[in-house]
Amino acid sequence: MAQMSFLEHLEELRKRIILAVGGVGVAFFVSLIFSDELWQVVFEPAHAALVHLGVNPPTLKLISPMDSFQIMWMKLPILAAVFLSSPWILYQVWAFIAPGLYKRERRYAAPFVLFSAGLFIVGGFFAYFVAFRYGLEFLLGLGIGKGIDPSINITEYYDLFVDVMLGVGIIFEIPVLLFLLTLIRVASPSFLVRHSRYAILIIVILAAIITPTGDVFNLALFATPMIILFYVGIFASYILVLKREKRRFPWGTFFKVLAIVVAVLIPIVWYAARYYGYHIEFRWPFLFK
Predict the structure, then answer these.
(1) Residue 215 has what DSSP assignment?
(2) Which of 4, 126, 181, 247 could be bridged to 8 by S-S, CB 3.0 to 4.6 A?
(3) Sequence-distant contacts of 140-144: CB under 8 A, at least 24 apart
(4) CB hemisphere CA count around 93 (13 angstroms)
(5) Is 220:265 a contact under the CB 8 Å cutoff?
(6) Considering the entire predicted model, what is its pTM?
């Protein structure tokens, strides 16, 4: 293992931060070119929710003259830059911790960057197409028919958009976090399994907070991916431990068990969807009640 002094660690950290910020800066200037198109992507969930709720015109409100400039030409390109440069940022994170790892463990660099960046981006897609849309329409619809006319400030709308996108994106990094904790020997698969009930409780509480409606089906829609990600992290940690101990994982048995679990879950999900009045259509948002 590489030996580094405290000052060398600080210098390495400074170098990685500068490189990460530089990558975000390059992605920012690229995003500026497509600022109008990016804004249309951000505005689309609000437009769809307002149209579905019968609000006319389906527009956002500009309170301060500087709001549109700050959001469309500064804040939004920065958000896009964070997602675009996430592989580069995560590579810098890996490069910082790599000197403290064994040589054979440094081979995980490419999978770490690909999976962590991929999960962050998938989390962003889940937030955009599921969490944010359902939550926004539910919140706006609370006052409809009660003498309340939705009038959304562009700044508050964008802040909510950012909170949901980044929050869900970070939540989708659960497997990477658990893998890193195992890699640096802070946690172990057995420890994670023993305390999984507390993790599931916390996940369900978080899902209950962000779930737009109070029914069990929507709660499961938000909580299930997070629980699956937690166990994916435990599984990745277990594979890492087996590699350290030079043991092989029984993939044949694993795929058999996985097939049985999927076969059991499919009718359960189908029955739950029918019970709560949901059906699938081949158009957005695919799941209708």
Answers:
(1) S
(2) 4
(3) 140/49, 140/50, 140/53, 140/55, 141/53, 144/53, 144/54
(4) 16
(5) no
(6) 0.74
- The residue among 88, 81, 69, 95 whose CA lies nearest residue 13 is 95
The alpha carbon of residue 125 and the mean position of all alpha carbons in its chain are separated, in whole angstroms, by: 8
Residue partners of 213: CB distance under 8 A and separation at least 6:
134, 138
Task: Please give the radius of gyration of the chain, using alpha carbons only, rounded to the nearest integer.
Answer: 22
Q: Which two tokens stand for residue 141?
A: 């619809």
pLDDT tens, residue order, the chain (289 aa): 456 677 777 888 888 999 999 999 999 999 999 999 999 999 999 998 888 888 888 888 888 888 888 898 988 999 899 888 888 888 888 888 777 766 776 777 677 777 888 888 888 888 888 878 877 887 787 777 777 777 888 998 998 888 888 888 888 888 888 888 888 788 888 888 888 888 888 888 877 776 655 566 667 777 888 888 898 889 888 888 888 888 888 878 888 888 998 898 888 878 877 776 766 666 655 666 6
Distance CA 223, CA 221 (A): 6
DSSP for residue 59: -
- Closest by CA to 18, choosing from 99, 95, 118, 124, is 95
In angstroms, the CA 251 to CA 216 distance is: 34
Contact (CB, 8 A) for 162 and 170: no
